[in-house]
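Hi,

Apologies if this is the wrong queue. I'm a grad student, and the batch job for Glucan 1,3-beta-glucosidase A isoform X4 from Nicotiana tabacum produced an output file that my downstream script rejects. I'm not sure whether the problem is my script or the file. Here is the sequence I used:
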Amino acid sequence: MLDGTQVQFKSVTLQKYFSAQNGGGLNVTVDRDNPLEWEIFKLWRVSDSVFQFRTSEGQFLTCSGDGSIVTATAESPSDSETFYLERNFNNRVHIKLKGGTYIQASSDNILRADFPGTPGWDDNAATFEMTIVGKMQGDFQLANGYGHDKAKEVLKKHRNSFITVDDFDFLYRHGIDTVRIPVGWWIASDSIPPAPFIGGSLEALDNAFSWAQSYNIKCIIDLHAAPGSQNGMEHSASRDGTVNWPTSPEYISQTLDAIDFLASRYAVHPALLGIELLNEPSAADVPLDVLVPFYKQGYKIVRKYSTTAYVIFCQRIGNADPFELYQANIGSLNTVVDLHYYNLFDRYFDKLTSLENIQFIYKSRQSQIQALNSANGPLVFVGEWVNEWNVTNGSLADYQDFGRVQLDVYNAASFGWSYWTLKCEKKHWDFEWSVRNNYLQLQPGVYVGKSRGKMISRVILLLGVACIWIFLH
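Support response: The file is valid. Your script probably expects a header line. Output copied below for reference.
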């Protein structure tokens, strides 16, 4: 029951689902036999028993008081959009106003705050079945779910133990010369970050730079989470899966401020290799005519502090061609385009065999890297990849072959590659586990000491400032 959790409600008496007509902006009815998009509501968590409910179009459920009907017409939440949720162990719930009146499903298929007294858990008009159909596990969910004090305690313990100097020793011994470090935009106000975020990520980043310097390892700072979210995913610290960054000049300005903060703080640090301006903007939500001006401004900000740091532009995820960034003329000095390659997250890969996955790497990925390497423009960086796929019951030899072909192809990228991620509870996503258990076979001496225009290899490092799933490790 964290922020962004998607829920459906069904009346136990009418056996019909709540529905926000047109996805929001109109009344809420209780008349649907099958729940689809209009019948899904996203939680905004106030406390463990108090919530606001957001429709697919972004409006909030609202009720003005006793006897009033429930509509989906509020553009922002306040007291009238805040509800108490009572639950039993059979996924049954009651919903009541802050004043204490319970909502019921009436015989004319509407919701009204007029149930008399306190309902039990039998089949009555104020009892509903709640189904959870989706969850989010990001920074916002952790911080707002635990509350400030507990979240601070949890994150402090995590940051002090998850990534340590021993991990940099491991990377050094295995020939990795650079780490890519995701950060959230709130790092720029780390001492007092905006609610619900928790401070401490700046100290963790400083530690990483110090450890990296001691092992002659370079650092790429990756702005992984922007205010309002650039892709709606949990790793961008989205509250409920919506994408508000590209439509808000204020959010874009805050993002540029974060880049300015990071560039000014680390520009002269000997361990800095580059700054990635924004991770994985969504092609469906972030227009190119918004992204390119942002990238150009971010490039100028970094150049204000450094003429040598690489400035990295991540391609849009989804239906977008990385050549669009080569044609945009964003910057001329030490620029890089970041591509993310996964044989996952697309139904195309669902039924591929191990051999077909390998052939795809050679036929599709290799040709694209070769074409981009030959283009007149930024260097090419495979900024994320993983030795995992949808092949069931893959053997050790299968994973070794898949890893070998990816290393072979991605090594050819003019700026190298970065593995996602250094540590993870999912074994094959865990770089250290994969290397130690021989699923990923590195070639000694291949990954160190390359220069601009050649291969600079690297592995991603997560400090716990943008992704929740490492917190739960």
